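[step 3/7] inverse_fold.run input=structure_tokens len=288
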């Protein structure tokens, strides 16, 4: 019975990396490090995204493999150096420790699933998250350190494949998953988790993910994602969550909950006579 109860309260916590646990994108940091202008990197990445050349989030991996400038300049040691230069959000280590220790009988296994090269993520999170809990895009290298081929890309649907394997390995139910992300590369995995009653949390106001995620949290602290986890999974009230944060040396200074409606409004085309239907009073324009 005790073992069954432990399984029922065992969860997987999975997080994106770029702009979810960090303040900047690893691709921009890498471009700057090897002397490629951020404008040029942005032009190339956006161009690929626009024509859907690669899976969402895999633009950097494609450039590292196929762009002559990146091929000529980037070596394995550059990827590790990028990890040391990236600005991390505060409290990632505390978040890992609290989830790893368990909260109110709920056990959370912390993983990072990123489209970024795995060397970058592991370097950035060294001594914070164990290497074997970090999944990123993997390359095979030449003896010179130059990238040779790609082994695995953890972007788009690639994140779903990794997550499903973790569920089997960790013997967790599909509804016992918490995922946090910020952008288009997280759409596939969030939709997958939502369809199986897991909890998805957006950490940006990007309509790509905020309209899909069940909760949205904006904060410079990685610890902020605990608020919806404790509300939705542990069933805690706000006062108890505040007390928990304070007991761990953190104060929730502001906590504002708002609902955001994303609307795009433009002038409508004039209807044809057969389409014209009066449904109520018309708005008068300034010229009428």
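[step 3/7] decode complete -> sequence:
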């Amino acid at each position: 019975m005790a073992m069954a109860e432990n399984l029922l309260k065992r969860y997987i916590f999975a997080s994106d990396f770029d702009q979810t646990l960090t303040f900047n994108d690893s691709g921009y940091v890498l471009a700057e490090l090897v002397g490629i202008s951020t404008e040029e990197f942005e032009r190339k990445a956006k161009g690929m995204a626009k024509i859907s050349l690669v899976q969402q989030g895999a633009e950097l991996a494609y450039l590292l493999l196929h762009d002559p400038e990146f091929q000529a300049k980037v070596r394995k040691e550059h990827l590790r150096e990028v990890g040391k230069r990236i600005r991390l959000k505060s409290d990632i280590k505390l978040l890992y420790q609290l989830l790893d220790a368990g909260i109110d009988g709920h056990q959370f296994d912390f993983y990072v699933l990123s489209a970024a090269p795995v060397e970058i993520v592991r370097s950035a999170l060294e001594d914070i998250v164990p290497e074997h809990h970090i999944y990123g895009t993997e390359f095979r290298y030449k003896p010179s350190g130059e990238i040779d081929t790609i082994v695995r890309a953890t972007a788009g649907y690639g994140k779903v494949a990794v997550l499903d394997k973790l569920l089997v390995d960790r013997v967790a139910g599909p509804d016992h998953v918490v995922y946090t992300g910020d952008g288009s590369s997280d759409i596939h995995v969030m939709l997958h988790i939502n369809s199986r009653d897991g909890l998805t949390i957006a950490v940006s106001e990007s309509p790509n993910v905020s309209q899909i995620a069940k909760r949205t949290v904006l904060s410079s602290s990685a610890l902020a994602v605990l608020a919806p986890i404790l509300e939705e999974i542990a069933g805690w009230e706000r006062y108890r969550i505040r007390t928990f944060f304070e007991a761990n040396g953190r104060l929730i200074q502001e906590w504002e909950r708002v609902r955001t409606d994303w609307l795009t409004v433009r002038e409508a085309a004039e209807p044809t006579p057969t389409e014209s239907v009066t449904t109520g009073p018309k708005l008068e324009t300034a010229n009428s």
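[step 4/7] annotate
DSSP finds 13 helices and seven strands in the chain.
The domain at 2-247 is CATH 3.40.50.1000 (Rossmann fold).
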